[in-house]
Design brief:
Helices cover about 20% and strands about 40% of the residues. The protein has about 150 residues and is α/β, with parallel strands linked by helices. The strands form two sheets. A four-stranded mixed sheet has the order 1-4-3-2, covered by helices on one side. Strands 5-8-7-6 form a four-stranded mixed sheet, with helices on one face. A hairpin with a 3-residue loop joins strand 6 (about 115-120) and strand 7. The radius of gyration is 17 Å and the shape is globular.
Length: about 150
């Protein structure tokens, strides 16, 4: 029986920029660690060897949402990020329920995020928008209208 999604992992090249982006969104740092092949048995089980990585775990204050940012110091894909859109096949975005969507978007834009389109209101039930952050990470932001 599945109880919930435990966390979402995102591989990044610029860990500091990605971390700042999610801190500006309102997540808190739960922990940070540098990991190498000697201690990370999971990656060895997946066939990865000779690597070092830095991990930042972020989460919401209620503990319900956890995001893992990973920067590989070795085995890194140095290519520029792929532009993803909400309609791109595969995992295309991370959705967050927010309060006061306009304030959240303004804060993210000040830190360099790009609003994709505009904030839309659907049937006076919910406000939605998509925002692109560092390395092409796309967020869907949703605010329920009371």
């Amino acid at each position: 029986m599945i109880r919930r999604i435990d966390h979402v992992g995102v591989i990044v090249n610029d860990l500091a920029a990605a971390k700042d982006f999610f801190l500006n969104l309102g997540l808190d740092v739960l922990g940070e660690a540098e990991v190498d092949v000697e201690v990370e048995w999971i990656e060895r089980e997946m066939g990865l060897t000779d690597f070092r990585k830095m991990i930042v775990m972020l989460g919401t204050q209620d503990g319900e949402t956890t995001l893992e940012l990973v920067k590989f110091h070795t085995l890194s894909d140095e290519k520029e990020f792929q532009q993803h859109f909400p309609t791109t096949l595969g995992v295309s975005h991370i959705a967050f329920a927010v309060e006061n969507i306009e304030v959240v978007v303004a804060k993210l834009k000040k830190s360099g995020a790009e609003l994709l389109g505009e904030i839309k209101t659907y049937e006076n039930i919910i406000k939605l928008c998509y925002v692109r952050g560092p390395e092409g990470i796309v967020l869907e932001l949703a605010e329920k209208i009371s």
